[in-house]
From TrEMBL:
One of its GO terms (cellular component) is extracellular matrix. It comes from Owenia fusiformis (Polychaete worm). Zn(2+) 2 binds at residues 7, 135, 139, 145, 153. Its cofactor is Ca(2+); Zn(2+). This is Uncharacterized protein.
Length: 220
């Protein structure tokens, strides 16, 4: 288990929190949360990365009253970057394997993916970006690690799953922070302050917005 790829968030939940298998810390005071993708890994097409991130946010939107909007301005609530090794936040990545990504708990907003990894989509090879995104976005919303091995918020990488869904433990955790969803869905749920989508256009680029049940992205 020690050599298995995992999230960079230390397991710091208190014993009282562990009576509930999920653990939470912090929340966003708003229900509409914006995110910006600052750069892209060359491992995948940008369209695939945009889609994987939008779908990862949708997983959490489906079981809460949260909505997510991709923006291109510099004042997003969540800021997503692909970085490697020492990238200035005091928590350097370690190269390929082991720590895959880390995310700050609310309301810091930083989400970092290790560029040294081989990021893949719809494949058991490499590291599945969508799975890791669902996990890290959970941290950015206030979820800490779960002790349930089948939960998305379990600390260790679960691998590619064609029909990834939140475990009941994940759902109970996020709903304990933000409440239940009023939408109808077909779904089944710092270091200190850290843990391992209307249309907004920037740079004069005209984009079309696209809604995905609680997530609004923009397309060039």
């Amino acid at each position: 288990m020690m050599n298995k790829p995992r999230c960079g968030l230390p397991d710091r939940a208190s014993q009282s929190q562990r009576q509930k298998r999920y653990a939470t810390q912090g929340s966003w005071p708003r229900r509409r949360i914006t995110y910006k993708i600052w750069n892209y890994t060359p491992d995948l097409p940008r369209s695939q990365i945009n889609r994987d991130f939008a779908n990862a946010f949708k997983v959490w939107a489906d079981v809460t009253n949260l909505s997510f909007q991709q923006v291109y301005t510099n004042n997003a609530n969540l800021n997503i970057k692909f970085v490697s090794f020492d990238h200035g936040d005091g928590f350097p990545f370690d190269g390929r394997g082991k720590v895959l990504a880390h995310a700050a708990l609310p309301q810091n907003g930083l989400i970092h993916f290790d560029e040294s990894e081989k990021w893949t989509a719809n494949s058991k090879k490499g590291i599945n970006l969508y799975w890791v995104a669902v996990h890290e976005f959970g941290h950015s919303l206030g979820m800490q690690h779960s002790t349930v091995r089948d939960a998305v918020m379990y600390a260790y990488y679960g691998g590619y799953q064609p029909n990834l869904q939140l475990h009941t433990d994940d759902i109970q955790g996020i709903q304990s922070i933000y409440g239940h969803s009023s939408r109808t869905t077909n779904g089944t749920s710092t270091w200190g302050r850290w843990g391992t989508c209307s249309k907004t256009c920037g740079g004069g680029v005209q984009r079309r917005s696209r809604s995905i049940s609680g997530v609004t992205t923009s397309q060039t």
